[in-house]
Records
---
Amino acid sequence: MLQEEIRRRNLGNLLRHVHLDGSVSRAALAERMGLNRSTIMALTLELTAAGLVREEAPTDTGRTGRPSLVVRPETAGVYVLAFDVAVDWLTAARVGLGGVILDRRLAARPRAGADLDRVVEVLAGFGRELHGTAPPEAVCVGVGASYCGMIRPGDGMVRFGPDMGWVDQAFGAELGHRLGLARPVPVGNEAHLGAVAEQQRGAGLGFQNMIYLHGDVGVGGGIIVGGKLLDGDGGYACELGHMVVNPHHGRPCGCGSRGCLEAEVGERALLDAAGRPADLFGRDALRDVVTDAGRGDPAAREALHRIGDWLGVGVANLINLFNPGIVIFGGMLRDVYPGAADQVRTRIADNVLPVARERVRLRTSALGDDATLVGAAELGFSELLADPLGGVVPALPPGR
Amino acid sequence: MLQEEIRRRNLGNLLRHVHLDGSVSRAALAERMGLNRSTIMALTLELTAAGLVREEAPTDTGRTGRPSLVVRPETAGVYVLAFDVAVDWLTAARVGLGGVILDRRLAARPRAGADLDRVVEVLAGFGRELHGTAPPEAVCVGVGASYCGMIRPGDGMVRFGPDMGWVDQAFGAELGHRLGLARPVPVGNEAHLGAVAEQQRGAGLGFQNMIYLHGDVGVGGGIIVGGKLLDGDGGYACELGHMVVNPHHGRPCGCGSRGCLEAEVGERALLDAAGRPADLFGRDALRDVVTDAGRGDPAAREALHRIGDWLGVGVANLINLFNPGIVIFGGMLRDVYPGAADQVRTRIADNVLPVARERVRLRTSALGDDATLVGAAELGFSELLADPLGGVVPALPPGR
């Protein structure tokens, strides 16, 4: 029994290494897992027989001697369905083992809000379509979703989705029901999932303490502390967008408060600062400001500097609090940050205690807008990775 | 070997339970540790023979049946030396197993600063005195120190001690040297240690996610995330006093920035707000304001409200970021908080997302000014608790 438990854990760990790295030699697996090569070979054979990995001769390593076989995930044959409810779009994707997006469907979403039924209907339709067009031998091993709001862990209940006006909407349960699953789809906050994805596969690789700021209309956050996502007592931590940085003179925020970080650096703040019309909105409008600033337009540059100053106040506070190794700017902040970096750096130099900023790096997201989707996929893969041979029960029946 | 390792871990866990709880029945130990009662008895016998615990018949439990023996720490016989360098005082104490302060020495410290030599001389003198007057059969098992600044983990180097003007001063090494020890005294930041003490023995007992604000001249912080102190990449996290809450109109801060939480709610801010003379300072002056406010003095009350508003901005930000179960006000904030609580609560209601504040509690410190000293003692006990029978080598030779 103990033996069986150890074997299961080893299989899971090996599969996780292959899933996260994409391609690992047997020798590297033996070293990282502290197991001998014959054990690695036996574990790999089991995973191969289950259709989860395959072994290949490595491409020329330039070294003499017999090369170690390379283990790769069966990306095309083992996948999850990942869903992303963002402010401006609904996305569904088929994401293969190894975290590769194989196929996707995208729908624009009106800002005016949408009811649960309509959102779930669109996503479930996409999901069935993606599942139905997958190769016949491919297996769906899980489902996961990202949502731009506060999510109750466990059942995917949206406690608060400000831009849609959702309060206590059973999103995970409804999506699961509509997909014909026996239980709720696991759901995570978009910035939490983006942070995990960036740490596992993106700019945060190798960092144990990391701040991820996710710009959408507002600003969400995912904070990694000691290698783990900061969740707090109820799973509602990391709301850095509602850190008040300008309490007495701040712009009103969608949350009902005033001077929140997202009110000062969000989409509306930037467009207003750049003097754009009040009825303009969306990612394209925002990118236009960034492009104009790049061309030297003074109002656009000034707008980015103003946003950068507030962003710097917020980031400096976070560095004082978390002493992170890296701060990552994702979502729309990936576009905004380069033109605002000088102001951010100045604020950090002025406001952060020298000892706490000695080694911090500032980077833009490596995964871009896919970070949330890749993070959602990770929710779908979690059962398979916990028990690779017990878990390969199709999450959805074959689509045809 | 594995057996020996398990035994050592069980001994350490049992001693830790007794150390933290003060008095635990064998039955409760068996239940909490998941071991049978004969194993608990054997472990307890070993710890008793080593002079670390003793067993007693419980006081009348009011229940029928044979009562379970109660295990207590040998508080008088097993102690550490704990040191505390605060802004206004230097303290040393003999702290017995179980976290009980047995004896202490205290010296006022001038605000003007003090050099390393002088501070270490006073503390080492106190330490020798406390050690020398301990009962002849008592054993000193460790040493630990608290310091009001940023400390490098491992060697007790003070990286930044703003009120003394210390930068990179080898406090831990010098104190160890002066006490005749072979290695540096482990040192922690005062608010970090206070947080750990409050979580283990104070208002934070049972909370896994906790914010501790420690008011001295400024405001330090200790943040517990998932049961562990938030340390960050270098051990310099939790600097919530330097979270900027008033970036453009703020008071200058000792760190060189402006509008930091500690600049808006620290001792000077409160005394200024209450219209006290600029040359007045210290805990007594501050308590006078609190007392006057209690008597209905309008200027003093208004000062507390003003500080409470800024304190609320800071605490609201922390709740949005950490979704903690409890926020604890310690150090001088223990005195200030009751007269400022309404403003703090109003800010939390206005600035924190409802979902994140559903269950948070606000409390004052249970250990008061002893929190840092008790936390420093914990550093001294850590080796004994890790290996109770291997670790009982006197940290200091007998004093006589």
Note: Chain A touches chain B through 52 residues (CB under 8 Å).
---
Amino acid sequence: MQTRYFTLRDYPQGMPPRELFELHHQELPALDEGEVRIRNTWLSVDPYMRGRMSGVKTYVTPFELNAPLEGAAIGEVVESRHTSFRAGDKVRHMAGWRDVAQLKGDVLEPLPDMDVPDQTFLGVLGMPGMTAWTGLNRIAHLREGDNVLVSAASGAVGSLVVQLAKAKGGTVVGIAGAADKLEWLEQHGIHAVSYKGKDARQLGDALRDACREGFDVYFENVGGDCLEAALDNLKVGARIAVCGLISRYNSDTPDRGPSNLSNLLVQRAHMQGFIVADHWTEYPHFLEEVGPRVARGEIDYEETVEEGLERTPDAFLKLFEGANRGKMLVRL
Amino acid sequence: MQTRYFTLRDYPQGMPPRELFELHHQELPALDEGEVRIRNTWLSVDPYMRGRMSGVKTYVTPFELNAPLEGAAIGEVVESRHTSFRAGDKVRHMAGWRDVAQLKGDVLEPLPDMDVPDQTFLGVLGMPGMTAWTGLNRIAHLREGDNVLVSAASGAVGSLVVQLAKAKGGTVVGIAGAADKLEWLEQHGIHAVSYKGKDARQLGDALRDACREGFDVYFENVGGDCLEAALDNLKVGARIAVCGLISRYNSDTPDRGPSNLSNLLVQRAHMQGFIVADHWTEYPHFLEEVGPRVARGEIDYEETVEEGLERTPDAFLKLFEGANRGKMLVRL
């Protein structure tokens, strides 16, 4: 059986050009004892992957050049020499960016038995959902009635953050750009604020109009002007969970940095970066709390789906154009 | 009896000119029931007072123009109509910037009975000392063996921070400017790094040379290049206590902001602003822990003393020239 997979030819500066991604194919060897062969059905592309394309070790190791790229994926076992798996089993693993994966069974997770579509375990019930839950509950210590601000509020993470926050009863404000994203937010009872055509000060003014008394929690996905505008609208004792700074991921110039960090002092605010992998032992807890709500249709999640392995790099690059709503996926 | 006191004529932009401070005198009325008259012996001037000269409410209310300025002071009761105080008692209060204060007895604190000079209750055992202890223990959660970085390390707060941190056994690095300050640090077993003639990157390199493995704790008194250099030298899970940002207090242009806030994310670091007043209920706890060490001579504290009420504004302005070592005081 053949596998087709993507590699990275070089570490990009700035936005990666499409040509850096190369599609290869290879005949797979017969399975060794303990190995499993999986036909992937869904691939995940995520902003954090840009960090792995830098060639610099940050909180994740860089992708190896000219080797199969990696990422979360869901698939069906087609052949197994591992006692815990047999053909037909659905599994989640990290050998994405390819159509057929061959792995030691020990690195596979069986999909949880819940009445939800498979791909939700890459999105609202996968890493992005767990990120939203962890940031709100474990980093920002969300409390009943908190006013919450979220940037990239209609993204894979942000769209769950706003819904989890809304359920706690405070005012929730989401920053987004495109008209359909703003509309989606308003439909869910979120005050939507567009960043378009606004500098940091103007965005700050718009946030003040949306929530006069300021924010207890800011869930940061973007950085740049969003962070600066948020820092001007904190309540005393505010907590900022820094989940991502996507506005900077493809930048090759130094950030200007927010001019108003002194607000951390004035408002005795707390700002903390986090990486969801550090909290993964809590995944069962998250799944128990959020899974049934997804199954009952109480949580609205959106997906942007590209079709076919060949489109994987395009799906990834679209993350940085603001072209996706909710989770960006590739269906094979 | 007359009192002489300073007022502020206008809210300054940038560094306050000396002429903004005006000395007045006034005949004091007879004491009302419950009032106490105090002849001040020591006045405190502190960087936070600059914030009260802005006319903008931040975490402290602005000074009222043309009214007596305020600040911590120590004095001796000369007359009392309050049952808890009598002539000769030593007290601490907030009616500084004057030679004779007349106050309700309820706002006076008797000086603790410890074998230390009176003025230590304005410095190492007063607000600056309590600030050092609170930032290290309650905000940065200092642990045994932590590597600690301190900016303005020979100042009233910093000089205690480095000694408390050093007692916990890790590497302690202090940033300062003048040669005598660097020398003082080295004499106390602190790795001293000069910020002079270095941009943020060069300062970061110097910090790396001083402590290869990076810092668990950064105690921030300065901001600007110090913060940027520190952000490049954090260990995973680092805690930054933001006590002050003195580099910005007299600035009338927007801060550039650190270009590398993304390190908060990479290192899952925690950054928190704090105001010591929020933690004042813990003062007895601090005094119990640090007081005996000061009395036994185990803590070295320095004082820079100006003589005479007339010099109070000059003492205050020197805080921003880096001219003081340790606590800046005025002796009356």
Note: The CA atoms of residues 175 and 193 of chain A lie 5 Å apart.
